[in-house]
Amino acid sequence: MTGLAGSRPKGSIGGQISTARGLDKLADMLGVPLELRPSLRRAEVLSPLKLAGNLVLGAQGMPAYDLSLDGMAASSRLTARVSLDARGAWREQRVSLSATLDGAEVSTVLAQVLPDGLVGESARGAGTPAVATFRSVGVPARGLASLLTFDAAGIGGEFRGRVTIDDTASLAIDGETRVTADDLGRTAVLMGSARRQGLEGVPVQATLGTSFGRGTLKFEARQLVLAGLEAGGQVSLELGAARRRGSGRLHVTEVSVPRLLATLADSRLKNDERKTGSPSDNALWPEAALDMSALAGIDFDFRVNTPTLRLTRDMAVTNAQIEAKAVDGQLNLVLRNAEALGGKAEARMEFSKVADGISAQGEMQLVNARLEQFGSPSRSAAIGDMSFGLDFKSVGLSPRGLVSAARGKGQIALGRSQLNRLSPGAINTAALAALVAPGETLGAELRRKLDEGLSSGVVPLGPRNIAIAIADGAVRERGA
Question: How far apart (Å, rounded) are the C-alpha atoms in residues 305 and 297?
């Protein structure tokens, strides 16, 4: 080292960092603000940290720092280089930074590079390697042009944008994120989430406008395709609070209720579901136990519009507005202004964890539905309008268990309606006609008269109100 007594020292310093605390001491020596240092969570997934480094001062006759690091961060190979002019306040000087993490375990590398609020406890995968790289150059106060890439088998990602550091050392980020994943369920597990049946086998392609500031991360979907279905909208995540908070407004071309319920299902699957890796599209009430642990530590408020809300493969409501809120582990779902069977459908459900399973309560209404919509319009036996309302509550372990244990009451209101092609008198008329018909035409005459009589027969159904009750999952007329 030379020139230590002056303003332009030159030389180099070598050393080794073996713990996260050692990295913190190096940051102290370099004057790195606390706000820019690794969080406790990140320090833990970077440890044990064994780095050898070289700090060059005054390279090429310039007052500057040039720091090179090489070693291991947990199970990942870490190489990094930072060059910083030292002619004044660091925020106003040119900075060049590059780093590479090359790990044998994809979940570890994800935990090391993703923001704190997007990852849970690191989950071990199957030894799949991954590489993350970061490049950034510019003046911190005016914006660092930055590129972050991630690559592993079945998962790829890239962020390209600008990172600005203000006079309080707070970060502001603005750019674009691209993500591809062959299996959203696997990706969620690698990020520390519990296994979620409803996410398994769902491929994702996304281009997201991305910004961060004052503890809030925001995404705007510029292109988002989930399992071949297009989606759009905005999502915000508040990451700094003790409980994370999310909100968003989304539009999805189709939403599947069985798959939504399966995202809350326990990771233990039935054998037939394990083979397919996804819930049955025709099972409205899955048998897998509900697991609401995914709501621990996060509150959210999402509004979703969809032209098709699919209840089963063959049953759907259209133009639905869905509100999903979670507060302190309780999930509230509201369906508004949906179109079903020629009428309007609305529903509300609340789910919460109780000692003996999941408690559910709710209500649903269908107004001005058309009876002819319940079957093929060309062959419908009933015509007219009907409405119904229903209140219920239940406790169970699975969606199917909740239905089986449901209790409640409601009312069916039939307007001016009738049942066609049902006339007891038509049988007498056809029998008399057959008796006087010649023997060789008896069968044909009987069929003709029956078709004629039944096609014109009408049995009035309403107007009338029918009180109904739910007990043990079955709907009965109240008092019957």
Answer: 26
Q: What are phi and psi of 325, to 5 degrees?
A: -125, 140
CB 253 within 8 A of CB 307: yes
Distant-in-sequence, close-in-space partners of 71: CB < 8 Å, separation ≥ 6: 16, 17, 49, 50, 51, 52, 77, 78
Distance CA 54, CA 71 (A): 12
Average pLDDT per run of 10 along the chain, which is 480 residues long?
48 67 76 79 83 76 78 92 80 92 91 80 69 96 96 95 91 96 87 77 94 93 92 90 87 88 66 44 68 82 94 85 92 93 93 90 92 64 84 90 89 82 55 51 53 62 86 77
Q: What is the distance between the alpha carbons of residues 414 and 452, in angstroms, rounded to a whole number?
A: 27
467: tokens are 């009180």
DSSP state of 90: G
Domain boundaries, the chain: 217-340, 424-456
The residue type found at 380 is S
Residue 130 CB-half CA count within 13 A: 28
What's the N-to-C CA distance of the chain in angstroms? 97
**Residues 209 and 219: beta-carbon distance below 8 Å:** yes
Pairing of strands 229-238, 255-256: unpaired
